[in-house]
Design a protein that fits this description.
Length: 75
């Protein structure tokens, strides 16, 4: 999936992945996709809830070598 920006939030604990994701989203246009890489196990629930509450769409997520990858489309 093509993303407008990649955010490296690996090694960060809650709530920092959300804080950095929110900041990165501010730089994108509506419809752009932000790719987030995180290692915090809580990131899946946190980012899913955050995207929904912010009017964004969690397009896809996967786990690879203990890294969680998320693709969030800006609403």
């Amino acid at each position: 999936m093509e993303s407008a920006k990649v955010l490296d939030a690996k090694g960060l604990a809650c709530p920092m992945p959300i804080v950095k994701t929110k900041k990165a989203m501010n730089d994108l246009q509506s419809g752009d996709v932000l790719e987030v890489h995180a290692t915090d196990k809580g990131a899946k629930n946190d980012l899913t809830a955050w995207a929904k509450s912010g009017g964004h769409e969690l397009v896809q997520h996967e786990e690879e070598n203990d890294v969680f990858k998320f693709w969030i489309k800006k609403g």
